[in-house]
Amino acid sequence: MTKPYNRLEDLYQRDLVFDTAQGKTLPLERILKRTVKFYPEESDPFIFDIVEIGAGNGEFASQLAQEQPDSKILALEIGKERFDSIVRKIDRLQLKNLTAGFGDARPVLFNRLSKDSVSHFYILFPDPWPKNKHRHLRLMQQPLVDVLIQKLNVGGKITFISDVKDYSEWTAKLLSQSPLLSNDFSPQTMTQELPQLVSTYFKRRWEAMGRQFWHVRFTKNVSK
Ligand SMILES: C[S@@+](CC[C@H](N)C(=O)[O-])C[C@H]1O[C@@H](n2cnc3c(N)ncnc32)[C@H](O)[C@@H]1O
Question: Which residues lie below 8 Å from residue 110, measured CB to CB, with a gap of 6+?
């Protein structure tokens, strides 16, 4: 059973992270043992240019796959219905360069991707956990950020967008602590405009409600 914790700092030190599937915090180590199912079934080499984490119904990943037929794209999604929706898009649009992964993204990010191999990670409108007391449940935590940086190639980028300003600030702060990264929007921390980015289901949903978006983008300049 997960031990109770008193301070958020204790939580990070023990690498406890939120498990979307069970709705509770678990040691990261346990989550990393989970298996992820791929469609189409995985084939060697397991190398992807672009990885979307929490891909929802695959609207963004499938658009990217059509726009960039030479890029290999991986869309990771833990929700079964949403994963099925990505699979239907792969079949209907005959997207040979898009693979969908069903399960927690973290085992794939930590264990399967190779160092210096990914050109772009996208995290678009992740579950926001806007309340202060729930911040520790957010996907973007130091261990995950460290792994994303390690798996990026030099010149590779991390793009993060949220409609919750505090989550974008939180992510920008985590990323800005790495000496390997630079902020694409410097001297700003983040921007509200990123016109070239195609739409996602949640972006349209929040747009219709008049919400604003905060875009964070960092580039890896040095390998380690
Ligand atoms: C608010 S939705 C945004 C979906 C999509 N990016 C969009 O903008 O339409 C967040 C998505 O992240 C997925 N998700 C949350 N935690 C995840 C995890 N650990 N691994 C993979 N997917 C995750 C959820 O199931 C959900 O589909």
Answer: 32, 147
- 14 CA from centroid of ligand 1 (Å): 24
Strands (E), the chain: 16-19, 24-27, 37-39, 50-53, 73-77, 98-102, 118-124, 152-162, 181-183, 214-220
Site residues for ligand 1, CB cut-off 6 Å = 20, 54-56, 76-79, 82, 104-106, 124-127, 139, 200-203
Alpha-carbon span 97 to 192, nearest angstrom = 30
Q: Which residues contact 135 (CB under 8 A, 6 or more apart)?
A: 8, 129, 170
User: Position of tokens 């993204």?
Assistant: 105
Q: What is the pLDDT of residues 45-93, one digit of tens each?
A: 899 999 999 999 999 999 999 999 999 999 999 999 999 999 999 999 9
> Under CATH, to which class is 29-220 assigned?
alpha beta
Q: Where are the domains of the chain?
A: 29-220
> Which of 162, 189, 185 has the alpha carbon at shortest distance from 173?
189
Which residue has 């990771």 as its token pair?
76
**78 Cα–ligand 1 center, Å:** 7
Per the CB < 8 A criterion, the answer to whether 95 and 68 are in contact is: no
Please give the Cα distance from 162 to 103 (Å, whole number): 22
The pTM of this model reads 0.91
